[in-house]
Write a structure and sequence with these properties.
about 325 residues; mainly alpha; 13 helices
Length: about 325
């Protein structure tokens, strides 16, 4: 039954992505509107979804304990993905410009525009979103430190300036929502209802944005690039499968308190398609932005199949 739910949810998201794709092709969504959607999601609707989701979550000792485990597993998963990306880039004999993109796109996934809406739909009630946000914070901390270093290793880059990226509306929304959750605070209905409704709009806006991104990618020759498919295999299937076995072993032996929901969120977040932000960073730091764009396109398309499959494996292994 759970597998049917995720297949249906992926199909729903796929329909939304298709609408965004054709809207961009028809130039209903142009570059300015696409940028506006991105800023609206990142600065308003997503922070509201995080805040209201956490505020509505009932705090328990189990939730806090699993949250701590999720943070540890998130860093472990991200570093495992990064190591796999480095190894495969060397086996493929990629140069520095392509190798940095290959390893970073193996490491970082689309936790914001696809991960959050999917997790929120699969695990309503706020607990899944709590774990997903912890994974996102771990990913963000590595993106603006290790990620920028790998992309920009030949230039001087201030660590402080990179860490400033951690101070964004989503981080503040998580902190405020966590305080409300711990204190058991609630907002009056007249305030809570519009904030929750606007937060729920994140799913629709995010899918439109992904669709519009895919519409502007040239697919000529993209399906002939071995390194793109190796990255997708590592990120979408290999490492999620390793994490399924590893977390299953932990849950049955030394960490029986690890909940199935926390385990599922970590694995699904690790198996998200390539992160769109890496494309932007590639352009900024002179890496191979065309490869980054191809990674984004192919991994997003394939994830419509791999995410339901990974979720099925989680339920049976």
């Amino acid at each position: 039954m759970d597998s049917i739910i995720i297949v249906n949810q992926i199909l729903i998201l796929g329909v939304m992505i298709a609408i965004g794709f054709f809207a961009a092709k028809r130039r209903i969504i142009d570059e300015n509107l696409k940028e506006g959607i991105c800023r609206l999601v990142f600065s308003i609707t997503l922070p509201l979804m995080i805040f209201t989701g956490l505020m509505h979550t009932h705090i328990t000792p189990s939730l806090l304990k699993n949250g701590a485990l999720v943070i540890v597993l998130a860093y472990f998963s991200l570093l495992l993905l990064f190591a796999t990306g480095i190894l495969s880039s060397r086996l493929l004999k990629l140069d520095r410009r392509r190798g940095s993109i290959h390893s970073l796109h193996t490491m970082f996934g689309n936790h914001v525009f696809l991960g959050f809406p999917l997790i929120n739909a699969l695990f309503p009630g706020g607990e899944g979103l709590f774990y997903a946000t912890l994974f996102y914070l771990a990913s963000t901390s590595l993106m603006w430190t290790l990620g920028v270093y790998v992309m920009n290793r030949e230039k001087n880059q201030s660590l402080v300036s990179n860490l400033k990226h951690l101070l964004n509306p989503n981080t503040f929304a998580f902190i405020l929502g966590f305080i409300f959750m711990l204190a058991g605070l609630r907002l009056p209905g007249v305030i809570d209802q519009p904030l929750t409704g606007m937060g729920n709009a994140t799913t629709y806006l995010s899918m439109l944005y992904i669709g519009s991104m895919l519409a502007q990618i040239s697919i000529r020759g993209v399906f002939t690039r071995l390194n793109v498919f190796v990255m997708c295999f590592n990120k979408l299937l290999l490492i999620p499968f390793v994490l399924i076995l590893f977390t299953g072993f932990l849950g049955s032996t030394i960490l029986p308190e690890l909940s199935q929901q926390a385990r599922s969120v970590v694995i699904l977040q690790a198996g998200m398609p390539a992160m769109a932000v890496v494309v932007v960073l590639a352009r900024r730091f002179g890496a191979d932005d065309m490869l980054a764009t191809e990674n984004l396109f192919v991994s997003t398309i394939l994830s419509l199949v791999t995410l339901p499959f990974v979720y099925y494996l989680i339920s049976v292994l």
